[in-house]
Amino acid sequence: MPHRPGQVARALRAAPPDQLAEAADQALRLALGASRTEVFIADYRFTGLWPVLDPERREGGPLAGQGGAQRCFSSQQPVLDTDDDGHCRAYLPLSVWGERLGVLLVELPQTPAGSTVEAARDVAGDLAVALRAADRETDRYRRARRRERLSMAAEMQWDLLPGRSVRHGDVVLAGQLEPAYTVGGDHFDWSLDGDRLTVTVLNGAGSGLAASLLTAVTVNAMRNARRSGGSLVEQAELASDTIFYQHRGARHVATLLLELDCRRGVVRAVDAGSPHLIRLRGGSAERIGLEQQLPLGMFAETRYDVQEFTVEPGDRLFAVSDGVYAAQPDGQEPYGEKAMARAMRSTRLQPATEAVGTVMRELHAYHVDADLHDDAVVVCLDWRGSSPAHDEGGR
To answer: PPM-type phosphatase domain: from which residue to which, for each copy (predicted)?
Structure first.
């Protein structure tokens, strides 16, 4: 069987951004002797994998199923399904820098050798990078991700996100917004720069488009300071001043700013409002007590202080907006009192990318599957502790 994965990479570079799936299909047929391929994209809520080449097909189905695509997506490992005639379906993860985009299906006439699987996995990696880049140039893959129409506010929020997960050395980070198709002001942002990871979680004020616009101003003000080399304090203060001079104290944004030294496990924090930080260590979940300072934009020239704490190898941090911990449907006790901690403890054997979904599903169950009364953000950060054995180099 011919192995020419470099041919696929060249085909992807030459293809128009909206034709990557077709280019990969043609090249894989030639390079690996594939009889069929399909690109499955995960939807906004990670409830299903949906085909790009043949949108009318429903193969892949809900992620709760047991198909090869679901197993591959969850495990992030190749899955081979061989039928009685010897034909094989190889499912390869479409992931880039730890962000799970979907799954590549390659149908082969026989069970492939290990070298063929590795070649196909390399192709899937090239395709994932191309898909991530193509999102700036075409709407095709974004359309595949949505199961219903997004509100204008949600459209802005999803476009503002840095991604939904990232992996780098000893750090794995993931986040999720809900309600995915109508989220208004709640948001998260992050940036990796060498051994420094900056994470912000915003509890947006208000609802709808007005809340989304306020969040966009806040996020971009913090990014402007961060990209200019500003510290956490400078990020908070620039965002606060920007909001205040635009709204004169009538609008403000509760924000948690974190900066993790990925090598030493030291976290610097500015707690400017209501997002909560919970540490999962062993079998216990406890809130990290930070000194709560004024939300961004409440007063002119507000000044902020940084606090520090350390994480230990294996620690997991959850940052959640008040739409999670304060959820109180039908007069029940707040979700964060017991149910949230129980959901977080149940994730200790799951990767961060699965953990955020578990907490969100439990939140929906707490609402008895009714619509959430408020926007909700869950961000999960794992620090495994610096050691050559744990460093995966961002793969």
So the answer is: 168-383
* Fold that domain 150-383 belongs to in CATH: Phosphatase 2c; domain 1 (3.60.40)
Segments of the chain assigned to CATH 3.60.40.10: 150-383
Question: How many other CB atoms are found less than 10 A from the CB of residue 271?
Answer: 24
Could you tell me which CATH number the domain at 5-143 has? 3.30.450.40
Q: How far is Cα 368 from Cα 370, in angstroms, rounded to an integer?
A: 5
Q: Are 100 and 42 in contact (CB under 8 A)?
A: yes
What's the length of the chain?
Answer: 395
Contact, 253 vs 270, CB < 8 A? no
The answer, yes or no, to whether residue 137 has pLDDT greater than 50, is: yes
- CATH 3.30.450.40 range(s) for the chain read 5-143
pLDDT tops 90 at residue 63? no
Is residue 14 within a helix (H) or strand (E), and if so which, with residue range? helix 5-14
For residue 301, give both structure tokens.
């020239």
2 pLDDT more than 70: no
Residues 6+ apart with CB under 8 A from 71: 79, 91
Q: What number of other Cβ atoms are within 10 A of residue 359's Cβ? A: 24
DSSP alpha helices (H): ranges in 177-332? 208-227, 232-247, 322-325
Comparing 205 with 244, the larger pLDDT belongs to 244
Tokens of 237: 């203060």
Task: Tell me the pLDDT tens digit for each residue of 149-191.
Answer: 999 999 999 999 999 999 998 899 999 999 889 888 899 999 9
> What sections of 89-149 are H helices per DSSP?
114-134, 140-145
pLDDT digits (tens, 9 = 90+) for 322-379: 889 888 777 778 888 889 999 999 999 999 999 999 999 998 888 775 666 778 999 9
The DSSP output letter for 62 is B
- Rounded CA-CA distance 342/387 in Å is 30
List residues bridging with 171 in a β-sheet.
Answer: 168, 383
C-alpha closest to that of 154 among 213, 221, 222: 213
Q: Distance between terminal CA atoms of the chain?
A: 28
Query: Which is nearest to 257 in space by CA: 329, 299, 203, 330?
Result: 203
